[in-house]
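Example record

The entry below shows one chain as it appears in the dataset: sequence first, then structure tokens.
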Amino acid sequence: MTETTTGATGTPTGATTGTTSGTARTGVAPGTEAPDFTLKDNHGRTVRLSELRAGPEGDGRNVVLLFFPFAFTGVCTGELHALRDELPAFVNDDTQLLAVSTDSIHTLRVFAEQEGLEYPLLSDFWPHGRTARAYGIFDEDKGCALRGTFIIDKAGVVRWSVVNGLPDARDLDDYVKALAAL
């Protein structure tokens, strides 16, 4: 697998690919506007990507948009714990972490409470996988999102991404490097 990174100007410097069921997946390409979405978080609050973008004061936030297949599974739990343990790098005045799965908000609420996850877990439950499909990472055979991560700048443009198949964990250090490049 090769990952996509972009320079400060947003110019892609690589190509992201992941595979599932033998089919390569790339997701939304860096340099393109991130598809907007409205989803409920694990507390039932509405989260809109467009509301996190820079306002007239330039006070928006970069977004680390992380798709994970299912709550309560080993690799997903491990990845989300790693983010929890490094939370100040991903939830601060400049950056917001959003983790998305096709689980229901009720499942995500219990999962977050059990695992001590204090960042938003968004439910792409219904219409099932609509946001994962918009990002090009929905696995139709499994009915869930692949492991896709998209770094979105304050203007709403994807600046970096990586897409892994279901069993392949992502490297947290790659997110930190991509955020530092913004």
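Notes for this example: Confidence is low (pLDDT under 50) at residues 1-24. Residues 123 and 130 are 10 Å apart (CA to CA).
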